[in-house]
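Quiz preparation item.
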């Protein structure tokens, strides 16, 4: 009897710690690594108690394991030709989810609960509700502080970055949370259960996306929406046209009458004017120039994860526009070229290619989430902070392992 209870307990804890990952948006930064550690520990205990290890069973599942975990190994090897071992080791600790999640899902591939459709839907609902709760809580907090004024649109991004303590979050990661919540809500709306609840929630999330004023997130969401409307065969042609016109008109109005967003899109003009006026677009151009110069000096293996920051800083100091300040590459692909060279980038592109291949035969939802991350990585170092590392690695591996495991049945 005791043994049976213990077995039930370890399975219960596994379920709790797995679903707990979907609640990532409501956890403070200092607790997020603990979520990953608890899931790993419960996975190992579950496999040990039930003797149901998934190691070396199905070839295609083992293949995705080795591919998805390869980037951790590549970055780890880069530590050996770095001089700044301390910085490199800290970064290595930060990207542990790159190896933890592939290991967990490989071990658990025989667990029916983890990879069931019901569990996926429960997880998506938890992520949606936690994201909605997080941003509603932020609004109530700011309202209580008296920050909800006529300048709320202009100050919102700054406030969530610096005035929420351990709950502070960079606008780009906040935008990713909102975008993923909106993507997963589509299937819930299609089921028409709690339809008005999800529509209301989506409106609130869209308002928050506008408040965040990240033109990159807004653009990719518009692209995904247009793709969904164009290729969805269940929508009548007439409604596609009406929807497309409505989306274009609403987008124009948002850009036109939201000061922070209109300023950000107007800033793009500087790229074509080829001037050196201070702007975010010109800032990025000069960062990219510095990054490319650094890459050209050591293109094959890069400088190692420990030295990539220092090397980039040296090249950036040569750009007068940057005024001696340090900026990361603002492009994940350039970042990997500096730290691990063409070899490292090749492994990362292999990960994306393989997972896109799986997503293309899976669902538009899976594909949309991958497209979202890939596009965001073109303009930000999304995988340099734990918010991006944990969420990307978890969703990347869970969706791919689930699709491969279920297709093999």
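Solution:
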């Amino acid at each position: 009897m005791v043994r049976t209870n213990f077995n039930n307990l370890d399975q219960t804890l596994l379920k709790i710690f797995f679903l707990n990952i979907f609640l990532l948006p409501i956890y403070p930064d200092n607790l997020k690594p603990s979520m990953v550690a608890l899931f790993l520990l419960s996975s190992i205990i579950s496999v040990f108690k039930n003797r149901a290890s998934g190691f070396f069973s199905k070839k295609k599942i083992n293949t995705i394991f080795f591919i998805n975990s390869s980037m951790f190994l590549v970055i780890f090897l880069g530590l050996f030709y770095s001089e700044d071992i301390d910085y490199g080791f800290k970064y290595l600790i930060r990207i542990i989810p790159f190896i933890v999640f592939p290991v967990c899902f490989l071990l658990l591939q025989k667990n029916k609960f983890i990879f069931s459709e019901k569990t996926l839907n429960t997880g998506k609902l938890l992520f949606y509700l936690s994201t909605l709760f997080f941003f509603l809580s932020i609004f109530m907090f700011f309202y209580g502080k008296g920050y909800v004024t006529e300048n709320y649109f202009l100050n919102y991004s700054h406030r969530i970055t610096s005035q929420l303590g351990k709950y502070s979050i960079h606008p780009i990661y906040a935008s990713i949370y909102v975008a993923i919540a909106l993507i997963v809500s589509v299937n819930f709306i299609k089921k028409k259960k709690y339809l008005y609840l999800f529509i209301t929630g989506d409106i609130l999330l869209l308002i928050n996306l506008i408040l965040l004023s990240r033109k990159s997130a807004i653009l990719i969401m518009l692209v995904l929406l247009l793709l969904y409307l164009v290729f969805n065969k269940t929508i009548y042609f007439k409604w596609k046209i009406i929807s497309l016109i409505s989306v274009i008109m609403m987008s124009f109005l948002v850009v036109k009458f939201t000061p922070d967003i209109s300023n950000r899109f107007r800033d793009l003009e500087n790229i074509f004017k080829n001037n050196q006026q201070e702007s975010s677009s010109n800032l990025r151009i000069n960062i990219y120039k510095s990054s490319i110069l650094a890459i050209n000096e050591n293109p094959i293996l890069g400088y190692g994860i420990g030295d990539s920051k220092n090397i980039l800083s040296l090249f950036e100091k040569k750009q007068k526009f940057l005024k001696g300040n340090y900026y990361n590459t603002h492009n994940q692909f350039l970042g990997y070229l500096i730290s691990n060279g063409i070899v490292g980038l090749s492994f990362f592109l292999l990960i994306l290619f393989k997972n896109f291949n799986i997503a293309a035969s899976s669902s538009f939802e899976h594909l949309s989430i991958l497209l979202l991350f890939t596009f965001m990585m073109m303009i930000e170092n999304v995988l340099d902070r734990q918010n991006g590392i944990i969420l990307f690695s978890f969703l990347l591996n869970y969706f791919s392992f689930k699709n491969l495991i279920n297709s093999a049945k």
